[in-house]
Amino acid sequence: MNPRKGITLKICAALCTVIMGACVSGLKGEIPIGEVVFFRSAAAFLPLFIWLIVQGRLRQEIATKHIGGHIVRSVSGTGGMFFNYLALIYLPLVDATALSYAAPLFTVVLAAILLKEIVRVYRWTAVGVGLIGVLVMLSPHASWGAPVATATNTALIGGILGLTAAFFSAFSIIQIRHLAKTENPGAIVLYFSLVTTVIGLSTIGFGWKMPDAWQLLLLVGAGLAGGMAQLLVTLSLRHAQASLLAPFEYTTMIWALLVGYFFMGQLPALTTITGAVLVILAGLFTIWRERQIKLQARRDDLLIVATEDARAA
């Protein structure tokens, strides 16, 4: 274990995620979303296969006995990708990034419903605070009586799309938790990329557009950055525990602020920053609380073992 290296890899993965979003945002909705998903997924195969070949255990890494689970995870993940890319058409990079932080909150709810996890009042409180943060981010745009074409309602549409993407991502996270018990990281990444590529390609009949040189560069850049993000996350987990790395997911906000300001001329509204801070604090509290519960469970197990040893003596 090398926690410092793991954290560095996680922060680099966050940067790659933001670069991917910036590339998609730079397309300005001029390329159909299905086509964007195809290029994003197809280009991601390059870093993935290079990594698998370097590992020298390609066959072992991609072996699976749960192809159905991979399909469910991939379809939900593709849904998250579609809606996230749609949100980037309507929202600045920072706003879309901030809304993506709702995914861990939805994960708590879905874990309680689908996995029957016991969610105590502390985590429900964190979910409530996080949802308040989301409402704060959306509050400037909640003018339902305004014409649809106004910038206000356009941003509101983007917010709804961003939350929908977060919900699909949360469902995907739940499925990854299940797969991670038996599947190799390489298999999880490979089958996700394969399924999303096929789904993206299936939209070709809905009118793809021939990209120009700049658009092609952005499409390929999104794929390479997305593929690198997945690999860096996987590698980071080899050097540090997931509970230690989880808070560094929020460094995407720092990267989004820097990329948005210096390369896209975007300045976030105060409500976006305020709401994002509330959501981040709620997410960090949830992470801390889960870690405390696991530590307490370990202490209880050790106490039981010590008690049984004392009785046996």
Give a structural overview.
The chain is mostly helical and 313 residues long. The protein is 78% helix and 0% strand. The chain has helices spanning 3-26, 33-43, 45-55, 58-62, 67-90, 93-100, 103-114, 121-138, 151-179, 185-201, 213-236, 242-245, 251-264, 270-312. It is globular, with a radius of gyration of 21 Å. Mean pLDDT is 82; it is low at 144-150 and 305-311.
Secondary-structure blueprint of this entry?
Layout lengths: L2 H24 L6 H11 L1 H11 L2 H5 L4 H24 L2 H8 L2 H12 L6 H18 L12 H29 L5 H17 L11 H24 L5 H4 L5 H14 L5 H43 L1
Helix pairs in contact: 1-11, 1-13, 2-5, 2-10, 2-11, 3-11, 5-9, 5-10, 6-9, 6-13, 6-14, 7-8, 7-9, 8-14
How many β-strand runs? 0
Distance between the termini: 36 Å
- Run of helices and strands: HHHHHHHHHHHHHH
Q: What value does the Rg take, in angstroms?
A: 21 Å
Describe this structure in a few short sentences.
Helix 1 (3-26) runs antiparallel to helix 11 (213-236), helix 2 runs antiparallel to helix 10 and helix 5 crosses helix 10 (185-201). This protein has 313 residues and is an all-alpha fold. The two termini are 36 Å apart.
